[in-house]
Amino acid sequence: MTSFATLILVLSLTSSAVFITHASGQTNTTTGEDNDNDSSEGETEAPQGASDLIEAANNGMVRLRSGPTIQFGDVAQPSAHTRNASPCTARGCTWPKGFRGYVFVPIYISRRYSRSERNVIIRSLVEFHRVSCIRFVWRRRHRDYIYFHPFSGCWSYIGRQGGRQFVSLQQRGCVDSRVIQHELLHALGFHHEQARSDRDNHVRILANNVLPGRLHNFNKVNTNNLGTPYDYSSIMHYSRFAFSKQRGVLPTIVPIPVSTAVIGQATRMSGNDLKRLNKLYQCRGY
Ligand SMILES: [Zn+2]
Hints:
By secondary structure, the chain is α/β, with parallel strands linked by helices. It is 23% helix and 13% strand. It contains six helices and nine strands; from the N terminus they run H-H-E-E-H-E-H-E-E-E-E-H-E-E-H. It has helices at residues 2-13, 50-58, 87-92, 115-131, 177-187, 271-280; strands spanning 69-71, 75-77, 103-109, 134-138, 145-149, 154-156, 164-169, 203-205, 253-255. The chain has a five-stranded mixed sheet. Strands 1-2 form a two-stranded antiparallel ribbon. Strands 8-9 form a two-stranded antiparallel ribbon. Zinc ion is lined by residues 73-75, 182, 186, 192.
């Protein structure tokens, strides 16, 4: 709790340099409460991975009249682009490097969130400081920034869009560190793991088991994999029953060659997620 008070203090006292002081590598006390996530091995029955949470929250998602189209379950599409276009994934709509090799990503958190919801968001942001050169800062005069807002569902654009870009975290089901890390990896430029260009070597998509009208969620994308291996435990990987006609019975994603391998149950960023992040942003020393 002390650490949490410190965090709030840091936030309220600093301006654009928000989290920096907190993030320079000393013991990470802010994530102490999340340690029970470590016991997630052999979790075949635990439907608590990021992707399941997102799918559950997005089940009743209400389309905004003027909002973006959502593809792949939780990926907002820039209006000018067609369904398959994810230029950011291939080309890299990254956030620019700032001084001392840090990548400063300005953020704003909607006033609609309660104090405790705000704190969950902030804590998830600070986790990135511990493991990468990403530094979230309060948006002041920055042109490009991420705006967390409780629209319907959990979703994000992929990569920096230019100007204000929303990350939607509806209050019920999305204000959760697992979901927030997943959505932020989208905003930092990453697509789903099973959308990777090389995914057919690692998983089979069982189209017949997919809910009608949802097969497009399994499209492949010309991703930049940054030389990292395909990773079943990526927080960006869907679960075995993602968009299944019958969850628990009809799998939609089956690993190859070991069909029983656990997939899509990550509760935090995997080693490969971090490697990829640090490669894309050329973070040194992480
Ligand atoms: Zn996603």
